User: Fold this.
Amino acid sequence: MADSLRSHRRTVAFYGISLMASAFVLYLLYQSGGGKLLFLPPIGIGLFIFGFYLSFSGASFYSRFRGMMLFMALAVFMSWMAWDTGLHDYIVNSSYGTFLAGVTIKFSVLFLNAAGYHVTNIGNQITFLGNSKIQSFDVINSCSGADTTILFLAAFVLMLVDQGRRASKQKLAVCFVLGGIGTYLVSMMRVPLLGIVGYYDGYGTLEAYHMYSGYLIFLGSIVTFWYLSLRWINKRPALAVAGRLPD
Assistant:
């Protein structure tokens, strides 16, 4: 009986992982189609959530992530809507996007030089001065992280809806400040990493990394933010957990 149950769980987990993998395949198809296959992202979201449930619902760590699944789905949906409604273009082409692009360029030049990759910049173009497989690369407004910061704000509003009445205002304020700064820094780090990829592997690898990394970095930073902040917000004092009230 026990062997049969374990076999059943392995089979269910296999189907779940397959569904999660198919969600990423749909994302690749969506990207390769230039964003024209608008029906793919919602299907991918549903497949990923259902596959995650099938794969890990029997695992002990699933309870830690169960409350995040709706948030993750909404984060993917918001990101998709930002691209397909033109909101992304409006944000990155605004003065706000231009300002953050300038900050990102200065940071990237400082980071690459500190890491030993000798670069300089003229305008939005970063040029390698040493032996590199690429001569230069451009940092345009869409690389600035402007859209990421707006999407983080939307994600934080979702967290407020769920946790606002239970969490202290002080903890929410700390989560907002640290989460916003952290999300932007992670997004900004993508640019010098793009330069390093191009330095060693050329434009082909750089373009592939550029196409897919932004989306994955955004999701990774948002999921990390939710996981850490929700754990901290919902953490009860040790005395309360022990059934005692503080004096």
Summary: The first strand starts at residue 119 and ends at 122. DSSP finds nine helices and three strands in the chain. The first helix runs from residue 2 to 32.
